Amino acid sequence: MVGWGLTAALGGAVYFINDRIGNLQNIEISSQSKTILQQEAEVKNLTSDLATVREQAAELALKAQNAERQISDTYDFNGTHRQTKGAEHMTSAGKETAVFKAMVDLQQGMRWAELLADCDI
Description:
By secondary structure, the chain is of the alpha+beta class. The chain has two domains: 1-68; 71-121, no CATH class. The protein is built from three helices and three strands. The chain has a three-stranded antiparallel β-sheet with strand order 1-2-3. The longest helix has 67 residues, at 2-68.
């Protein structure tokens, strides 16, 4: 009888150990799945970042070519549009310049509510 009791106890212990190993494996698999999902999300973000960097690189390459050709196209703080193409210089003042002047006049007149209303547009 002692043999059967020992066999039953060992069988129960083996069952418990196998169950525990199964639980630990499930936890490990779950953890690895989460890690894989996080890495997939990081790869998607990096892919998006790479696309953005490539677009910026293309824009910079174009600007470099234009600089070599002495071509520039800029706006001053007050809205004046300046273009340079080689020896040719063009300056134009559009509606932005008039808006800037109106904002300066409001600021100098301390008409803050009107300035705020104009700036919120």
